[in-house]
Amino acid sequence: MNRLSNFFLLFVLSSSLLSQTDPDIYSKFTEQTIVIDGYNIHLEVKGNGAPIMFLPGGPGNSHDYMQGNFGHYYKTNKVIFFDWLGRGKSDDAKNSLEYSVEADVEMMEKIRKHLKLNQMALVGHSYGTVPAQAYALKYPDNVSKIVLINGFHSGAMWQANCDSYNHYAKTHFPERWVKVDSLRALGYLSSEDPLKELYGSFPTKYIYYHNTALKQNVPKDRFRGWANDVYTQIIGPDGDFDVSGSMIDQDYRRKLKDVKAPTLIIAGRYDGVSTPEFAVQYKDFMPQARFEMFENSGHNPYLEEPEKFYALFNEFFGIKN
Fold this sequence. Notes:
The protein is of the alpha/beta class. Helices cover about 35% and strands about 15% of the residues. The chain has an eight-stranded mixed beta sheet, with helices on both faces.
């Protein structure tokens, strides 16, 4: 979700406190560029063993925070990190209409073919769970396992969580929300200034973190951590209030019961982005999956309850310490 482009930029540029045990993980990877559909796509692959593709949130985030939290799994698996078109160190699209959930899914498939993989596990966080589910439904034979971390099962869920956040912001910061209402009355969209700037100024860390002192592990080198044009295209020009774009067309609820790949679904009790009210619906839509609620986490359980999270992750993948 966006509100939020300003927060996501801060979120990605923050230094690490407790994100994982190896703050120098980035130096252990070799960057490479592959050409897909005429575009240079940033890719980093390391390790042997069963392949795992990691899918970051946004849509607009680069791969870096996922690499910072999961890069150490190169010791046991082949780990795959990349930047989707228009994000991170990958090229921008010539036309913004090229940004969509469907296009992200196809890029995953083209990377799989480039790496000559028969199957791969998918680990998605936040928005990354959306193309993960779409890929698993379209290419079921190519998926070995799935982990959905604080995700979304539909565009309707994304809209409901936007509504939930807006209620939170209005009731907790009424003095500031009066200005939002005034700009909305003048017809401003959430992707337009001055509403974009005002909306992004809300202290959103409380909806992402239960422990607000935690920050992500990110590289020392400069990088593009957030691409707002991608977010606006996929979620819509007024996406913080009225979700549109290709996101609103996503709906996996009736199809998830047919996913055969072993699946682990993780939610955070204090998550204000993918709220528990809707996250627990996965128990009905995907009863064959394992569902775990992290009782002391917001949107980032791997940061807030790392011992529990990584023990569960290791167990799911059969990784021995």
